[in-house]
Amino acid sequence: MEAQSKKRVAVIGCTGSVGGSALDVCRSYPEDFTVTALAADTGRETFPALCREFGAKRAVLSVPRTDLPADMQLACGEKALLDLIDPAVADHFVFASSGVAAVKALQKALEAGLEVSLANKESALILGARIAPFVERGQLRPLDSEHNALWQCLAGEDRSGVAKLILTASGGPFLRTPPEQLEAVTPAQAAAHPVWPMGRKISVDSATMINKGIELLEASYLFGVPASRVGAVIHPGSKVHALVSFADGASKLLLSPPDMRLAALTALSWPKRPQLKLNGIAPVSLDGLDLHFEAPTRDRFPGFFTALDAAKLGEPFAVILIAADEAAVKLFLEEKIPFTGIARLVAAMIDRYEGGVADSVEERIALYERCLAAAEELAVSGTLGGAAKKGWR
Question: Which residues on neighbouring strands pair with residue 95, listed in sequence order?
Answer without folding.
Answer: 12, 118
